[in-house]
Amino acid sequence: MIALAGCGEEDSFLEPSAHRYEAEIRYTPYGIPHIQAKNLRGAGFGQGYALARDHACTLVDQIIKVRGERARYHGPGLNDAYVSSDFAYRALGLVELAQASIYRQPAAVQELMGGFVTGFNRFLSEPEAEGLPCAKQPWLGPLSLVDLMAYHRSLAMQFGSGRLLGAIAAAQPPTAQGIQWEPVESPFVEAPPASLGSNGWALGAERTAGGRGMLLANPHFPWDGELRLWESHLTVPGQLDVYGASLLGVPGVLIGFNQNVAWTHTVSSAGARLTAYVLKLVPGKPTSYLFDGTERQMSSSTLSIQVLQADGSLQSVTRTYYSSHYGPIISLPGAGWTADQAFTFRDANFYNETLIAQFLGMNTARSMKEFQDVFDTVQGIPWVHTMASDRDGNVWYTDAAATANVGTATLLNWQKGLSDASSLQATLLRSGLILLDGSTSRDEWVPAQGARIPGLTSPAMAPRLGRRDVVFNSNDSHWLPHPSAVLEGFSPLQGAERTARSVRTRMNAHMLEEVREGGASGADGRFTLEELQTAVFSNRSFTAEMLRESVVQRCQLHPEGTVQGQKVALAQACAVLASWDGRFDAGLAGPAVWREFIAGFPSTALTSAGPLFSTPFSATAPVSTPSTLVPAPASDPDPVLNALASAVLTLQRAGIAVETPLGQVQFAPRLSQRIPLSGGLEQDGVLNLVNYNNSLNSSTEPPTPRGTVLNSRTALTADGYVINSGSSFVLALEFLDEGVRARALLTYGETGNPASPGFRDQLPLYSALEWRPVAFSPQEIASEQGGSPLFLTQD
């Protein structure tokens, strides 16, 4: 029996019933679903249904990707992209791994995920599903629990194997021609999206006006594709009451709060989620390698995929892939599979099957102690830092992301290789890869007592810090989780210590530590909820606050620069910067000039003394250094004025006058509209980060259109700055004596369906830097609810 109906207040799913799946969904403004059920099975059922309403096409597309079936439905793809993707995912074997791990999941996780799959498939059977943009596609169909679990594994491996899909697909043994083999080069080692990051603040009793905990969550994620965040509220009386956002297809809440604890995450981009290895091959045997002087044979797997042809037929393509005892063989740029060597890797999240158990444990935690215990016992965090606060005013930081544990000798040998900037170790490190020696057991991962699996660091080895004032992170390593406190002595694979922080990290730290009239927390140094909201959308630029006045003084004295022998007048640009207050607000002139000016220096100039700063970085003053504009040269051309001149010319090529307000050239498309936006890039040192994401991994959504790129450093195009990524789910909350008060914004909105009235419906709010009240208590939900609730049942 299946039922779907609107019901009045007198109806209740909590009444005795024989239905296996039951859920009630109440929608508040902007399409936020509040799902109530009498068990986790029902909660997952309602959440899966609501998610399918908004993003069925995206999730099923990702399931097809992980199954290795994109070429079957879409053809080979540009430059055989779908063929490569299919072979890579088949070689990883995520579906088989998921199948083997289903019954190792805790009963609560099986209930939640089983309900989610049932609810998702239920929506696909409804007449409303005919309005999906992919409704007529042959690949749209029901999911299985194995599908969902395999997809969760792919998410966990986002910063590991997910970066090497092209390298996995390209790895074929060299062809024997006498004794010569030709290497097969990898098309790429994929970098994470530049805008994939976050800011996170947890404020404790000593820094809040109410004396209880507060939280600021500001993840920077894409607004298109599979890495969008989606907002929901799940309630199971006596067991679960959690509000927040999740990645599409992930049951429960990843960033959010319950009655007692609030938490957020930032990408732990500095940590090692995998290690690559170079193998010494046995002469004449390209699929055998030496390990501790003994020959080992690679394992092999022959895989076949179906590829859609132009005439509609399917063609079978077969390849054989190889693995070492570490993992799959890969072909790296400039380091292919030859007669002498091959490359392989080990992924710290390859056997991470506790992702949902981790977040369900966090969702149901009744205290900070219970919340912390989940990190010690489940250990399912894949690639993020965590900041948390509780209603008693405690705050906590940890980088518990899965990390390789290697010995001291391994680290010393690797660091020795880095001393030569031209070495393969140094070259690959610039792509974020750590290369070890695969021919010796010395470089194997080392078991640690208490770790989830042998070879990972244990919870006791993870950086963590508990306080009563504040902890924060903005994607730099664990070293500076507080403006004036450091965590040191951890493995370099956990992240660098005693190194310069990004200008965005420094802006966060500066706003947290300043206590003054007009500062982020005011003269009393204690944040109110309104001050927390204002802080994240203040659009203050750290580079501008440090350098703008000095640059203006320099260009007022000598209002001319030179670019490739061309003299450029700077008086107008200088006047614009002089009258600008250093904020990247949509209504202000100055941000575009400053952005292009800063981009005239190498990215390393923001973290060291050199062409921009004269005072070098100091580990004892990480928030205030490097600093101070370099002095003008005595006689040579001034690089500061020349960079400003280059900025003027770059804007001219884009048809942008220097006095143009930012909002006229920085915007997000919404159907036929251009929504003006505030916000800055990473190099601008602005919390409210915006950017263009060109790494969309979708076969169903076209990339956001934009004109010819004129400056890749700033994403400036002939159309201006087109935005489709950055601040996404923004949450500010405070614990009160009687509950929780929260404000939120999902900048692009809940649904990915362009035909829906809710498509990107929160962009106008974001443009105006306005927040929505969060309906969390039953009274708040009742007062905000629009329309009749949905009462879902299924046997």
TrEMBL record:
One of its GO terms (biological process) is antibiotic biosynthetic process. Gene3D superfamilies: 1.10.1400.10, 2.30.120.10, Glutamine Phosphoribosylpyrophosphate, subunit 1, domain 1, Penicillin Amidohydrolase, domain 1. Its EC number is 3.5.1.-. The lineage of its organism: Bacteria, Pseudomonadati, Myxococcota, Myxococcia, Myxococcales. It holds the Pfam family Penicil_amidase. InterPro entries: Ntn_hydrolases_N (IPR029055), Penicillin_amidase_A-knob (IPR043147), Penicillin_amidase_dom1 (IPR023343), Penicillin_amidase_N_B-knob (IPR043146), S45 (IPR002692). It comes from Stigmatella aurantiaca (strain DW4/3-1). It comes from the Bacteria. Coiled coil: none annotated. Belongs to the peptidase S45 family. This is Aculeacin A acylase. GO terms for molecular function: hydrolase activity, acting on carbon-nitrogen (but not peptide) bonds, in linear amides. Keywords: Hydrolase, Signal, Zymogen.
